[in-house]
Amino acid sequence: MINETCPLLLHDVYGYDIVSAYPTILKKQFYDFKDVDLDNKAERNIFIGTQQRGNENLSQFLIKSADSLVSFYLLENNVTDKEIISTQRDGFIITKLLDTNDDFVEMKLREYIDLLVISTDRKKFLYLVDDEIKVKGVPYYYDGLQTFYKMFAKLNFYNKSVLFEQMEQIKNAVLNCKDVKPFLIPKDETSFIVSTYTGKIEVKDPDFIDPDTIDRKKYFNHFIKGFLGAIYLECY
Fold this sequence. Notes:
Layout lengths: L8 E10 L2 H8 L12 H12 L3 H21 L7 E5 L2 E4 L12 E12 L6 E5 L2 E5 L9 H4 L10 H16 L9 E2 L5 E5 L2 E5 L12 H20 L1
Antiparallel strand pairs: 1-3, 1-4, 2-3, 4-5, 5-6, 7-8, 8-9
Helix pairs in contact: 1-3, 5-6
């Protein structure tokens, strides 16, 4: 959930979460993990998913426990509503560091966030950590979009004229891109979906795609426009 009243553009905020939330919660309840290697993320996730299947009580216990821990840490540290940027099931992004933590179930500082941009519809956000752009809440996100998202890491917020030029460059990078690779939405290990002017098509060999048939404006509107609009609103 994203704060409905905070600025759309923020600098110097902090991302916290519970380390391996569900396994950690169950370990504190002395849950029997049998011979599962809890240091193996894939193995433990498969195990917990299997345990939840058909067990509504366990699923609800895990969800409520994680929610309660998030609420506990926010309350214990006197974090106000306007200091909360986003809450997830097992963590949050806030504008200050936590003063109080609990070793029983630790809320760990995962990321110092240099820049965070919330889309104009407040349904998604991107943020900069260690020169890497991460994206949350964007439907159908795929790694190929980093061709465009990584340009947000170079935005100069100290010079408006330069900033607006850079924003225009991001827009043009999408709308004028002749490389088909950033527009290949993975469907499975061998095929992709591409949105063209005549609709979505499935392809296995990208070389058969004519770049001029790709509906680049549709990609721009869905994946990029809301973030550029937010920066414009906050910086104009």
